[in-house]
């Protein structure tokens, strides 16, 4: 047995702990963790804005790999701390759990009390430059891998861009006050240092909607993209943005804002013809993707107000009862709670846990909605009519749900006849390939490894569930086959422990028709089995578009550009074969290019930005044609990566 004594115990001081185990602080070292660095810096600027001192934020992705984030707030203090005898700027950037947010004297409302935000950015950067603009002067300090590389330097504001220490730095906002954090993510830490402009833009748009007092400019020097985000209408504009793809029950969204017990409750809602609910919730500008006590309180208050109004006016006689799920069908809602000392569940702050938040939000929501419904009876009747229609559909769809539930048993006797199952029962290794048509299905069945790969062919394009209720969706045979084959059931009855295949792979042709089928399938999974996406079970297969051959040299390529490059490299006599569909491949080609774990390309389906995902589904699959046409025209000829 190896010796184990006290000398082997390490105490990681300063920011060493962050560099040693970065995942503890930012979740991961992939793209999500990389983007988290930007969010940490911007969140500080947003806190400054909420406190009333910041109106503008600028974000620039530089060609050099630096990210510059600038605001016009008060900046970080640069004077010497009386206890630690160091500049405040240096303490904030190098000492964990330091900051001005703990006692609530400087910032009454913040995203949390972890005290590790900008320190983590510094620790995980190859270099970080902190520039504070105050009263015509500029103070700056440079750090490398979390450690000070210079002392605090003071210069006249007009000399800052000529400083040899700050090559490439530019001031874009006010020169007399504000903060610039310019950092370069450390490639020793991150799997990639390439920021996604689209992902950052989506989060910044969200913050701009929630904070109408602020303007956020984002620019990429790499590809010339730039956008300025400012929404005077705030949350109401946010609701319109998310509900763009569907017809509305009301002309304008309902909006309410009030302060209760040192908390501020703000919400806006609209009813649409969609059969699903879009609920985006936030606490102190942090997205609570998993909801929490504030969401349950809001839903309870809204349901009680609508149920009581319907009963008082005898508008609910057509149904036995109105349930909470009926009130939420077709609802598009933004809820933002600002409060002191929010307690989040989980490292990602995805769910609010404060018990008092439920009662506060429920009471405020119920009181306001009851008053609104009584004051605007014509709007109230439209809402109740929509809710009653949902209740009728729910009652009618109960039998369809029960049928699906009965057929979701794991035993093979209840499996779809078209399913070519695999021999393994170990979900950690099994894969289900969902293909369209008998031709592709036949080729895939011959190509597969029967031990761990199953094939489920679908007939034609499945139903667009975005425009259908549960009764219609669950009466569709292809959808029922999907649910039965996977084994987990759906929506509130979904049980991940019963999953039959660890990988669920959508494998369609590499053309526009295949993309449409993929979108229809993705819409079904997003609306009925989102947990499969969140759990990392969903994938897209990536089949090749062309086979380029010259003699014994064979290349499979995935785009026109790759095909042209391959032809140039192999010479004029290269033979090009275009695959119009999976069924045109022979089994060995399909196995080699698309199904063999050693050589295939898979894209994992993830949800990086919930609000943008909801909006795109409503636009692409909703009942309004004009938003869809506009989206297609604006994005024609470009690759749209939804990050789903």
Question: What is the compact description of this entry?
Answer:
This protein has 644 residues and is α+β, with helices and mostly antiparallel strands. Helix content is 36%, strand content 20%. Strand 4 and strand 5 form a beta hairpin.
CATH topology value of the largest domain: Heat Shock Protein 90
Helical content class? 25-40%
CATH classification class of the largest domain: Alpha Beta
User: Structural class given helices, strands, pairing?
Assistant: alpha+beta
Taken from the alpha-carbon principal axes, the silhouette is: globular
Give the percentage of residues in beta strands.
15-25%
Give the CATH architecture of the largest domain. Answer: 2-Layer Sandwich
- Please report the number of helical segments: 20
CATH superfamily of the largest domain: Histidine kinase-like ATPase, C-terminal domain
The domain tally reads 4
Instruction: Please report the distance between the alpha carbons of the first and last residues.
Output: 49 Å
Q: Which blocks of ≥5 consecutive residues have pLDDT under 50?
A: 4-12, 408-413, 637-644
Rg from alpha-carbon coordinates: 28 Å
Largest sheet: 9 strands, mixed
Number of strands: 24
Q: What is the averaged pLDDT score?
A: 85
């Amino acid at each position: 047995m190896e010796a184990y004594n006290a000398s082997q115990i390490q105490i990681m001081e300063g920011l060493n702990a962050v560099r040693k185990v970065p995942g503890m602080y930012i979740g991961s070292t992939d793209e999500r963790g990389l983007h988290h660095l930007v969010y940490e810096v911007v969140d500080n600027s947003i806190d400054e804005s909420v406190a009333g001192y910041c109106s503008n934020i600028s974000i620039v992705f530089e060609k050099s790999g630096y990210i510059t984030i600038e605001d016009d707030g008060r900046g970080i203090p640069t004077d010497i701390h009386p206890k630690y005898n160091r500049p405040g700027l240096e303490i904030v950037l190098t000492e964990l759990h330091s900051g001005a947010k703990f006692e609530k004297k400087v910032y009454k409302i913040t995203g949390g009390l972890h005290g590790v935000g900008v320190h983590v950015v510094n620790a995980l950067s190859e270099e970080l430059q902190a520039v504070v603009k105050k009263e015509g002067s500029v103070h700056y300090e440079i750090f490398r891998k979390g450690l000070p590389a210079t002392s605090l330097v003071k210069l006249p504001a007009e000399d800052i861009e000529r400083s040899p220490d700050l090559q490439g730095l530019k001031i874009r906002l006010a020169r007399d006050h504000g903060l610039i954090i310019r950092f370069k993510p450390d490639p020793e830490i991150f799997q990639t240092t390439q920021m996604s402009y689209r992902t950052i833009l989506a989060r910044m748009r969200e913050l701009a909607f929630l904070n109408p007092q602020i303007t956020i400019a984002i620019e990429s020097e790499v590809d010339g993209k730039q956008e300025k985000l400012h929404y005077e209408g705030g949350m109401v504009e946010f609701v319109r943005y998310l509900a763009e793809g569907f017809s509305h029950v009301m002309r304008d969204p309902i909006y309410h804002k009030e302060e209760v017990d040192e908390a501020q409750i703000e919400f806006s809602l609209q009813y649409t013809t969609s059969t699903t609910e879009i609920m985006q919730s936030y606490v102190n500008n942090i997205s609570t993707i998993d909801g929490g006590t504030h969401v349950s309180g809001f839903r309870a208050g809204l349901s009680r107000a609508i149920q009581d109004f319907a009963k008082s006016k005898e508008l609910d006689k057509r149904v036995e009862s109105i349930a909470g799920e009926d009130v939420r069908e077709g609802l598009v809602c933004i809820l933002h709670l600002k409060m002191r000392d929010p307690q989040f569940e989980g490292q990602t702050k995805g769910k609010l846990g404060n018990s008092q938040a439920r009662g506060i939000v429920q009471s405020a929501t119920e009181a306001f909605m009851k008053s609104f419904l009584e004051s605007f009876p014509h709007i109230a009747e439209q809402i109740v009519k929509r809710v009653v229609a949902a209740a009728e559909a729910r009652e009618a769809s109960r039998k369809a749900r029960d049928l699906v539930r009965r057929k979701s048993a794991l035993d093979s006797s209840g499996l779809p006849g078209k399913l070519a199952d695999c021999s393994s029962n170990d979900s950690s290794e099994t894969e289900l390939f969902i293909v369209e048509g008998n031709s592709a299905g036949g080729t895939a069945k011959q190509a597969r490894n029967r031990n761990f790969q199953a094939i489920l062919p679908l007939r034609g394009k499945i139903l667009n569930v975005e425009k259908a209720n549960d009764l219609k969706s669950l009466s569709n045979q292809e959808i029922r086959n999907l649910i039965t084959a996977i084994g987990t059931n759906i929506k509130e009855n979904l049980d991940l422990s019963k999953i039959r295949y660890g990988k669920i792979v959508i494998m369609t042709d590499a053309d526009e028709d295949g993309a449409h089928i993929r979108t229809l399938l993705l819409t079904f999974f997003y609306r009925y089995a989102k947990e499969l996406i969140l759990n990392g079970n969903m994938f897209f297969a990536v089949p090749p578009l062309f086979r380029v051959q010259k003699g014994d040299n064979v290349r499979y390529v995935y785009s026109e550009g790759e095909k042209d490059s391959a032809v140039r490299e192999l010479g004029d006599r290269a033979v090009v074969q275009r695959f119009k569909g999976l069924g045109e491949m022979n089994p060995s080609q399909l196995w080699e290019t698309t199904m063999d774990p050693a050589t295939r390309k898979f894209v994992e389906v993830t949800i990086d930005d919930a609000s943008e995902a909801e909006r795109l589904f409503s636009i692409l699959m909703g009942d309004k044609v004009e938003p869809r046409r506009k989206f297609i025209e604006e994005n024609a000829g470009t690759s749209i990566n939804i990050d789903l």
